[in-house]
From TrEMBL, chain A:
The name this protein goes by in its record: Histidine/lysine/arginine/ornithine transport system permease protein HisM
Pfam families on file: BPD_transp_1 (PF00528)
GO molecular function, one term: transmembrane transporter activity
Membrane-spanning parts: 33-51, 80-98, 110-132, 256-278
UniProtKB/TrEMBL annotation, chain B:
Organism: Streptomyces mesophilus
EC number assigned by the record: 7.4.2.1
InterPro entries the record matches: AAA+_ATPase (IPR003593), ABC_ATPase_HisP-typ (IPR030679), ABC_transporter-like_ATP-bd (IPR003439), ABC_transporter-like_CS (IPR017871), MetN_ABC_transporter-like (IPR050086), P-loop_NTPase (IPR027417)
UniProt cross-references to PROSITE patterns, sorted A to Z: ABC_TRANSPORTER_1 (PS00211), ABC_TRANSPORTER_2 (PS50893)
Protein name stated in the entry: ABC-type polar-amino-acid transporter
Keyword Nucleotide-binding in annotation: yes
Family indicated by similarity: Belongs to the ABC transporter superfamily.
Main location as per UniProt: membrane
Catalyzed chemical reaction(s): a polar amino acid(out) + ATP + H2O = a polar amino acid(in) + ADP + phosphate + H(+)
Record keywords, A-Z: Amino-acid transport, ATP-binding, Cell membrane, Membrane, Nucleotide-binding, Transport
Topology within the bilayer: Peripheral membrane protein
């Protein structure tokens, strides 16, 4: 699937004694230059349109970018993303296994869970968790814990439950697809060796399903990072809520939205790089040799490029 | 012949929905015997093989391995289905080799062979590794221990699969068309390993299209067609002088 064509053939001309190296004039692609120019021009026009506006105080962005409260918000957003995803993945794997189980009770429970949590908007779920005190006045765990609902259901817990339980429903479907993607012969071979159902799942099926599960999960992480901005609606001080607050008190309301967007972009970019390497790890054994990483490719491209004659002029 | 046969089938039936694939199979496999099953595709020979280690559940008759019913317990004239863990226990002693190898692609050859002894028998990794090395050496792949299945040829993969089955020290080995997915020049290596196993006295049931192997190595041979045993006997007799008309027409096509 990942057949990488090696276009930089190394210092091919330096090879002595072989057949004569072909020196042909490569096909020209003038349209590529034209389209690149159009794209660049459009970008410049958009940037200029924003930059020349005197209604936006651009100086506020660098002033606030590393503001302590903003950085706190960034940390909170990342914390929430990680914790909600952990809940989502653990519960999601469990639900996927339940859904595929031969036991009709467990598979029905999983089906019902997914039906409910996937079928209602996450913002609505957040508000429901936040206001559940109407139904349950107290949280009473006998001798261990007893408190009023409103004290128990902090913004943190509301956010984690709302995001995590919702995510579990999506992760369950992703994991189910992954488990089903593993060839049945693998299960048979494992059973024939005397391995139990759970051992087969843990040692043979789940590791192989990871290759199918990881890419959409990376997508889910990035999605989650952005969805956390909804928790500002239940009083949680995440990045978005902090920028909103600063924006309302100063006069830089819109500027703060730009700042929030920039921070979200920085975080999602870092996650994308992480995702690339995790995917590479789980491709182990499925391809004969892994394709080079972008860093390796850059190195390989830079070294022979010196003796390339027909480069960009 | 010893008193307890390794495999005993009495009137074994198997249906998938309304399709009856096995229509009453009777046969006995003695310990240390090499038992070959031949027949056209769809004759039920692979299904019968898969019934022996309960990858398929028989729907009628009695099938037992080493005197023990497969998949059921008989008490006071009633049959009780075995729990999954009990089925797993029965399968430990039966090795199986598949047509499509089914090696675990995320593990090296060595890890493939070590997996079951470590996970099922709770053997220490050192002991399992030592045996795995020895088994890979036996199938002629000592130098491929660190390779992943995708880095091995079909013949090499199948030999690793044989080593993997042997690692559980089975008393019976099932081969489900072990050479059918291989390039012709790779078949010989796999058959050599199987021949070596037979010489060491392993009880083997082999579903195969390799008539040469059946003739040379087989102790008995059964020709199956449409879910019944058509003809059985010494492989040399059946292959050179088939009595039944259906056997004759099948052999005239494959020989």
């Amino acid at each position: 699937m990942t057949a990488d064509v090696n276009k930089t053939d190394g210092p091919g001309g330096a090879r002595g004694g072989g057949p004569e190296v072909i020196k042909a004039i490569p096909v020209r692609h003038p349209l590529r230059y034209v389209s690149a120019l159009i794209a660049l021009g459009t970008l410049v026009a958009i940037v200029y349109a924003f930059a020349q506006s005197d209604k936006i105080n651009w100086g506020a962005l660098p002033d606030y970018f590393f503001n302590d409260r903003i950085l706190d918000g960034v940390v909170e957003t990342m914390k929430l993303t990680i914790l909600a995803m952990v809940i989502g993945v653990v519960l999601g794997v469990l639900l996927a296994v339940m859904r595929l189980s031969k036991n009709p009770v467990t598979s029905s429970i999983a089906w019902f869970y997914i039906w409910f949590f996937r079928g209602t908007p996450v913002l609505v779920q957040l508000f429901v968790w936040f206001n559940l005190g109407l139904v349950f006045e107290y949280v009473n765990l006998g001798p261990f814990y007893k408190d009023q609902w409103s004290d128990f259901m902090t913004p943190m817990l509301t956010a984690l439950l709302g995001l995590g339980l919702n995510e579990a429903a999506y992760m369950a479907e992703i994991c189910r697809a992954g488990l089903l993607s593993v060839d049945e012969g693998q299960t048979e071979a494992s059973h024939a060796l005397g391995m139990s159902h759970s051992k087969t799942l843990r040692r043979i099926v789940i590791p192989q399903s990871m290759r199918v599960i990881v890419p959409p999960t990376g997508n889910e992480v990035i999605n989650m990072l952005k969805t956390t901005s909804l928790v500002s609606a239940v009083q949680y001080l995440d990045l978005f809520r902090v920028t909103q607050q600063i924006g309302e008190r100063s006069t830089a309301t819109v500027e703060m939205y730009f700042l929030a967007a920039a921070w979200y972009l920085v975080m999602t970019s870092i996650l994308s790089v992480g995702q690339y390497y995790v995917e590479r790890y789980y491709a182990k054994g499925s391809t004969r040799s892994l394709p080079p990483t972008p860093v390796q490719r850059l190195k390989a491209a830079l070294i022979p490029s010196r003796n390339l004659s027909g480069g960009l002029r | 012949m010893t008193a307890v046969p390794m495999v005993k089938a009495e009137n074994v039936h198997k249906s998938f929905g309304s399709v009856e694939v096995l229509k009453g199979i009777d046969l006995e496999v003695a310990p240390r015997e090499v038992f070959c099953l031949i027949g056209p595709s769809g004759s039920g020979k692979s299904t019968f093989l898969r019934c022996i280690n309960h990858l398929e559940q028989v729907s009628g008759g009695r099938l037992s391995v080493d005197g023990q019913l497969v998949g059921y317990r008989e008490k006071n004239g009633k049959l009780y289905e075995l729990k999954d863990s009990e089925v797993a226990l029965q399968r430990r002693d039966i090795g199986m080799v598949f047509q499509r190898f089914n090696l675990f692609p995320h593990m090296t050859a060595l890890e493939n062979v070590m997996e079951a002894p470590v996970q099922v028998k709770r053997e220490s990794k050192a002991v399992a590794r030592e045996r795995a090395q020895r088994l890979l050496d036996r199938v002629g792949l000592a130098d491929k221990a660190g390779n992943y299945p995708s880095q091995l040829s079909g013949g090499q993969q199948q030999r690793v699969a044989i080593a993997r089955a042997l690692a559980m020290e089975p008393k019976l080995m099932l081969f489900d068309e072990p050479t059918s997915a291989l390039d012709p020049e790779l078949v010989g290596d796999v058959l050599d390993v199987m021949r070596g196993l037979a010489e060491d006295g392993m009880t083997m049931i082999v579903v195969t299209h390799e008539m040469g192997f059946a003739r040379e190595v087989g102790d008995s041979l059964v020709f199956m067609d449409e879910g019944v045993v058509v003809e059985a006997g010494n492989p040399r007799d059946v292959l050179t002088n088939p009595q039944h008309e259906r056997t004759q027409s099948f052999l005239s096509k494959v020989l």
